[in-house]
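task queued by scheduler; priority normal; single chain, no ligands, no partner chains; default sampling; output format set to structure tokens
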Amino acid sequence: MNYLSIVNAARQEGGVSASDLTTVVGQRGEAKRFVDWCNRAWLDLQAMRQDWLWMRSTAAFQTIAGQATYTPAQAGVTNFGLWTRDTFRNYSNPVVSLTIASPCVVSLQANRLLAGDTVTFSTDGALPTGLTAGTAYYVVSPTADAFEVSASSGGSPINTTGSQSGTITITSNNTASFVGLKTEIFMGYVDWEDYRNAYLYGALRSIETRAFDISITPNKSIALGPIPISGYTVLGDYYMAPTDMIFDTDIPSLPAKFHMAIVYKALLSYGMYESASEVVLRGTAESEKWMRRILADQVGEIVVGGALA
């Protein structure tokens, strides 16, 4: 269900006799109240827990030599809520070779990439004309040891000209089979004060190598320790912040089978506004029923530890 259909469903459940709305934009009076109640219900539902499974996602970013901390934006996260601190790991970005040709061929043995995956190039020198460091390209015509790249999914392969220099590495959005994952290690979590004492003190500030610890700074940035060198990709999970519905076609990220939970939470607001006890009772009963279903499906499993030694 999109925003418009959710609003119309709430109006129907509330017994509103008027015709369905054709848009949520620019409404007034009771129609505007239903639009607001539905959005508020969606925001409230998202904010009920910080660990809803549908709000969990994975961030991936490349290390920069000498840079210890990375804001959510620098980690590629645009809707940040909360880091999942025990999910971080990193891997070494594999070195590739490029042809200057039409099309450009990228060589990487046993790359295990699939058509449609994206790759991003980095270099300590220069890429040939046609490719830009830090830009995501789509994999085209992959083989075991080589592939081509395109600026769009399923698009034409890119041609390269000019010259290249330095060591060229890649990272990929493929977190299932990409060859770089063979070098992946888990990263330990360190409290911020312990991190500062271990990595941001005296001569320790000048030690740069592969990071194996993470911490979370007071401003919610990720801190890597030791201070990293370049050439690694860091992966870690986070929970997204609540988002509004604004336009008719906006669809809640909550699985579609649970969208009626938003409808009934909005219905509850309608009943309270109208002092309609029967609507309040129905909205309460239905909301509680749908919340039980969501809690059973969208909260991570509780793992019980073994006996203490």
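post-processing summary
- The chain has five helices and 17 strands.
- Residues 1 and 37 are 16 Å apart (CA to CA).
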